[in-house]
């Protein structure tokens, strides 16, 4: 794709220019784009959005229509898995969204909603008590809101043993409040393997929420904060930085790219990326030990939807299913397991109708995974 970027983006648009030039307009991406499949509009598929961003970066007027089509993108990055030319669409759409935020005013209600999401969700001092309050009054909440407030879990007891081997874990901003046992369960599994999971109290949101909402500077502050919080543990020699939320993992693995122009953090960010591993990259190495720990007699069936941030964002496919099967579980996947479930971070709040349609589509036709 030939490009002629406008003066306003020159100097900072080299990355966008390189990505745009890789696109050969083949349209393979449309076959796996959830929003294109649902809406049938070329501008709601990756190829159409790329054309919109190209025109915008070349100086064409930026309209609310452009904003709407970029807003409808789930950023699932399924198109990246399909693209034969290696177009890094996820990075391009973040550039495009930043330009749109600068050039197109949003209605007040949208601005308020986005600012609240960017301010509340990453801030555990606000979000945690708000979630506890919501859980207390969950039964009287409106149905749509009640569906987003999980039933309180009975807390698991965290491990108390100390081990010589240590790995660092990102607790996250939303997960400790909505699904607290995920972090504790992670610690318990590694404890059984003789590895101590430690956390950095000052670490917070990975940066994904603010980044995807177009608050890039705030997102980079989140990134730098985490690097500062983790660095003492890195210097002490932790073996890895464990990610049990693939959305966070996909973002943390972009830290070196996000801070590539920051001389104070670029080298540290690369070190963080080198240490960051998803559970799906670590646990299969302990398959034998885990099999001995489980020792199941009855066959249990589990439903698993591969997260987009794992299979497309991190390009990790089949490992979770394989490990669960090895441990004696009967795994069921949705028929179109490569498609997005519709959650996509804050997308389910800002685009509830499209999100629901994606969820309905991804929750049908459960089947056994194919052998890899």
UniProtKB/TrEMBL annotation:
One Pfam family, please name it. CCG
So what EC number does this one have?
1.1.99.14
Transmembrane region(s): none
GO MF entries? 4 iron, 4 sulfur cluster binding; D-lactate dehydrogenase activity; glycolate dehydrogenase activity; metal ion binding
Q: Catalyses which reaction?
A: glycolate + A = glyoxylate + AH2; (R)-lactate + A = pyruvate + AH2
Q: Answer yes or no on keyword Iron-sulfur.
A: yes
Cofactor(s) needed, names only, are: [4Fe-4S] cluster
User: Under which main EC class is this enzyme filed?
Assistant: oxidoreductase
Report the cofactor remark. Answer: Binds 2 [4Fe-4S] clusters.
The record places domain 4Fe-4S ferredoxin-type at 14-45, 64-87
Q: Which UniProt keywords apply?
A: 4Fe-4S, Electron transport, Iron, Iron-sulfur, Metal-binding, Oxidoreductase, Repeat, Transport
Could you tell me what this protein does? Answer: Component of a complex that catalyzes the oxidation of glycolate to glyoxylate.
- Name of this chain's protein: Glycolate oxidase iron-sulfur subunit
The species is: Candidatus Burkholderia verschuerenii
């Amino acid at each position: 794709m030939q490009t002629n970027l406008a003066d306003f983006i020159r100097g900072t648009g080299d990355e966008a220019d390189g990505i745009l030039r890789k696109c050969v307009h083949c349209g393979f991406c449309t076959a796996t784009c959830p929003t294109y499949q649902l809406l049938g509009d070329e501008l709601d598929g990756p190829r159409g959005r790329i054309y919109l961003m190209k025109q915008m970066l070349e100086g064409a007027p930026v309209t609310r229509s452009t904003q709407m089509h970029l807003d409808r993108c789930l950023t699932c990055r399924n198109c990246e898995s399909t693209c034969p030319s290696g177009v890094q669409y996820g990075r391009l759409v973040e550039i495009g969204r930043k330009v749109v935020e600068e050039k197109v005013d949003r209605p007040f209600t949208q601005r308020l909603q986005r600012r609240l999401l960017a301010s509340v969700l990453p801030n555990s001092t606000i979000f945690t008590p708000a979630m506890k309050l919501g859980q207390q009054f969950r039964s009287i909440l409106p149905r749509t809101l009640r569906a987003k407030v999980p039933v309180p879990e009975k807390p698991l007891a965290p491990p108390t043993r100390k081990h010589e081997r240590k790995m660092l874990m990102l607790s996250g901003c939303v997960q400790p409040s909505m699904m607290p046992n995920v972090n504790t369960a992670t610690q318990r599994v590694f404890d059984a393997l003789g590895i101590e999971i430690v956390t950095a109290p000052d670490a917070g949101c990975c940066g994904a929420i603010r980044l995807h909402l177009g608050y890039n500077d705030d997102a980079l502050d989140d990134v730098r904060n985490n690097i500062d919080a983790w660095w003492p543990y890195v210097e002490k020699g932790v073996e890895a930085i464990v990610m049990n939320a693939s959305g966070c993992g996909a973002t943390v693995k972009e830290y070196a790219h996000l801070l590539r122009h920051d001389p104070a953090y670029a080298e540290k960010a690369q070190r963080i990326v080198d240490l960051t591993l998803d559970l799906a990259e670590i646990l299969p190495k302990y398959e034998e030990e885990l099999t001995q720990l489980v020792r199941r007699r009855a066959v249990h069936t589990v439903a698993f939807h591969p997260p987009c941030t794992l299979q497309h964002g991190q390009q990790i496919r089949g490992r979770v299913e394989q490990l669960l099967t090895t441990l004696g579980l009967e795994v069921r996947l949705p028929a179109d397991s490569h498609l997005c479930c519709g959650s996509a971070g804050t997308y389910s709040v800002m685009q509830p109708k499209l999100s629901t349609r994606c969820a309905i589509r991804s929750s049908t036709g459960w089947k056994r995974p194919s052998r890899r």
